[in-house]
Amino acid sequence: MVRPGSRPARSWCFWRGRAASIRTGAADRDRLLLFLLAALIALHRLVYLHADPSGQYLNTDEGLHSNDARSIVLYGTPFHDTYNPSVLMPVSTWFKVPFLAVLGVNLYGVRVPSVAACTLAALLLSLALFRREERLAAVAALSYWGASYFYYSHSRLGIQDPILVLFAGLTVFFGHRALVDGRTSDYAWAFVSALAALLTKASGVFAPGALGLALSYKAFVRRDKVPWRNVGAAAAVAAGCGLAVCALWFRPHWDEARMYYLWEVASRKTPDIARSLQGVARAILTLAPVCGLLCASALVRLVRRPREADDLEILLFSWLGCAAAALAYSSLLFWRWVLWLFLPLTAIAMRELVRLAGSMARASTARSRAVAGAFVAAALAADLPDYARYYGTMGFYIWDGSKQVEAVVGGSVVAGSGFDDFAANSAKIDLVSSFNFSRLASCEEVRRAFPRPEMEPRFLGVHAGSDPAGFPGVVTAFFAGCPAWKAGYKRFATMRRINPPGSADIWFVRK
C-alpha cells in the first residue's frame, strides 16, 4: 500500500530499463563521435589538396594510375592509347570515373576518391570495433589514423592503393558481421568486396585470401559451426560477378591483360622470400614501432590460446598476414604498398593497448581512456614535425606546371615521361601513351606504341636522370633506338621533375 503523498516504489524492471537506456544513449554518443571524427579527418585532407605530394612519401604515379579513368571521361573509352596497365584493375578505373566527371580532370578529381576511400576504410574498421562494444579502441584507432602523417599523405594521393584499402576494409566489415551472425547477405557483400579488391589491383588477392583464411580458422581451429549453405550462396554471387567482369572486360582485351600481368606481376617475383619478408618487417618497425610491438603481443596471445581469438581478431590478423605475403612476393617495396598493412596493424595494436591498459588499471575506464589518449597524443606529437615541414615547404609543381605545359603543347598529341604527371591535372593535354611498358629501343616498339598516324606524338618526353653530364648520352640512345627518331624529332627542352627529386626529362618535338 502506498501512503498518501509518497512516491510509488519503482520496480527492478524500471531501473534495468533505465540502465539500458543510459547505455544506449552512451553508445549513440560514441557512434556520433566516430562519424564526427571521420568528417574532421576528411576535411583535414581536403585542405590544400592540390599541393604536391609529401617529400617523405613522394609519389607522382597519379597520372599513370588515373589514365584510363581520365580517358573514359575525355574520350569515352579507357583504351584511348596503347598504354593500359589498368586493364588489370577495372574497379580502380571505374571507381574514379564519377569523381573525374563531376569534379573535372584535375588534381581534385584524381585525389578526392583517395580521401573518401581512406576515410571510409578507417571508419568501417572503427565501426567493426564498436560493434564488439570496444568503443574506446574504436575511438582510439580512428583518432590514431587521423593523426598519422603516413596515412594522411597516402590518402591525398590519386593512386590505386587507397581504393584497395577501402575494399579490404569492406571485406572485413561485412566479413565480421557474417562470421558473427551468419547471414547470407553479409557473406555476399564480403565476397563481392574481396573480389572488388582483387579487381582494384592484382595484389588485392590478399582480401579474398584473408576472408578464406578467417573462415577456415573459424571452422577448423575454433571448430565453430559455419553456415556453409549461406557461404556457398554468397560465393556463387561473387563468382557470378567475377564471370561477368571476365566476359565484359577481360575477354575482349585478353592479350593486353596477359601482357601487363607478366610485366606488372610475374616479372616482379622476388628471388629471395626471406629477404623480402625482412624488408616488410623493417618497414613496419620504421613506420610504427610501438604498434608493431603491440601487434606482436597480440599475436603471442593468439598463438598461446588460438581458440579464444574472436572473429574480428581472426580477420585482422588474416588481412595482415595475407597482405604481408603479397608484399613479400615482390622484389620491390614502396611506401604506398605498406598502406595495405597499416590499417590491420594499427587496429590490432589499439585493441591490444586498450586490453593491456584495462588490465593494468584493473578495468578502470578512466585510466584506460587516459592511456589510450596519451598514446594517440604521443603519436601526433611524433608526427607534428612532418606536418610542419610539409606545410612550411609546400609546393604546387604539378598544379602550376600543367598550365605551363598546356601553353607549350596546346592541343598537340604528347607522350612519354613527365607528361602523365601534368595530364592528371589537365583536360587539355592529349596524352596518348606513357610507353612505360617499352623503352622504345627499336622501330618495332615504336610502331607498337603508336600504331596509327594520328597517335604519333608531336612532343615526346624521355627521363634523363639527375646528372646533366649524362644527358647527351640519353639523347644519343634515344636517336639510336630507331632511325626514324633522328629523322623525325629534334631536342626541344629540358624540364625538371619533382620525382625523383633533382631529376629531369628531355623533351623532343617533331620536326
Explain how this protein is built.
This protein is mainly alpha-helical and 511 residues long. Helices cover 67% and strands 6% of the residues. The chain contains 21 helices and five strands. Strands 2-1-3-5-4 form a five-stranded mixed β-sheet. Strand 4 (489-496) and strand 5 (504-510) form a beta hairpin. The longest helix is centred in the N-terminal third of the chain and has 35 residues, at 12-46. The chain is globular and about 75 Å long. The model is unreliable at 1-8 and 18-22 (pLDDT under 50).
SSE inventory with pairings:
Elements (H helix, E strand, L loop, with lengths): L11 H35 L15 H14 L14 H14 L3 H25 L3 H13 L1 H6 L6 H21 L2 H17 L5 H16 L6 H23 L3 H11 L8 H15 L1 H16 L6 H19 L5 H26 L4 H28 L4 H13 L3 E4 L2 H5 L6 E4 L9 H7 L9 E7 L5 H11 L1 H6 E8 L7 E7 L1
Parallel strand pairs: 1-2, 1-3
Antiparallel strand pairs: 3-5, 4-5
Mean pLDDT: 90
Q: Helices and strands: which structural class?
A: mainly alpha
Q: In total, how many beta strands?
A: 5
Query: Can you tell me the residue ranges where pLDDT is under 50 for at least 5 consecutive residues?
Result: 1-8, 18-22
Separate helix tally: 21
Q: Roughly how many Å apart are the termini? A: 107 Å
Instruction: Output the strand order for the largest sheet.
Output: 2-1-3-5-4
Instruction: Return Rg in Å.
Output: 26 Å
**Gross geometry:** globular
SSE order in H/E notation? HHHHHHHHHHHHHHHHHEHEHEHHEE
Helical amount among residues, as a percent range? 55-70%
Strand portion, in percent?
5-15%
Please outline the major beta sheet: 5 strands, mixed
